[in-house]
Amino acid sequence: MAEKIRERGRPRAFDADVALDRAIEVFWRQGYEGASLSDLTDAMGISRPSMYAAYGNKEELFRLAVARYAEADMAYAREALAEPTAYQVIEKFLRANADALTRADRPSGCLSIQGGLSTGSDGGSIARFLAASRLAGEQALAERLSRAVDEGDLPAGTDPAALARYVMVVSEGNAVHAAAGVDRASLHATVEIALRAVPRSAGDAEAGV
What we know:
It is a single chain. The protein is mainly α. It has helices at 16-34, 37-44, 48-55, 58-72, 75-80, 86-100, 111-114, 125-150, 160-179, 184-195, 202-207. The longest helix has 26 residues, at 125-150. The radius of gyration is 19 Å and the shape is elongated. The two termini are 37 Å apart. 32% of the residues are buried. Keywords: DNA-binding, Transcription, Transcription regulation. GO terms for molecular function: DNA binding. InterPro entries: Homeodomain-like_sf, HTH_TetR, Tet_transcr_reg_TetR-rel_C_sf, TetR_C. Residues 13-73 form the HTH tetR-type domain.
């Protein structure tokens, strides 16, 4: 991430990645619209000129924050795609997601959901950006599930795009509930119900997964 942050003028006297992590917390708790420049720079421990020099404007800072969040906090989503069966892919994703939404060291919920639920002075560009980011994740899952159909891991006739959308609806709904204070055990209970709708291969059934 460090290489994506602007290098301009004399060397900075602060750690750009640490400051960005602090900005993530502000955006996560307050949303893009709710996070003022003063909130951001106070949390980051830098001046406005330093913020502009290192990250650009507020929107560019937010985009960098989302990229760092996706790289670190959502690494589990990429890892889930490597599971050997479609059921295991979905199960690992939803269970890891429920855990991530309720981490003690992070705000409850999900940055990509809470960051831009409202449309404000940006004309909706942040909401569209976040929607596109979520759609990219959904498409990656759909491609993995499509491969599962081709390999016979999912029944013929399974709609991988619809199944991927279902999984994302569950995860995004859990994110909203987590932000409202629903605990981890309750989110996992929802995951248990959701998994019953996922087609399972013969191998999964025999393995008891």
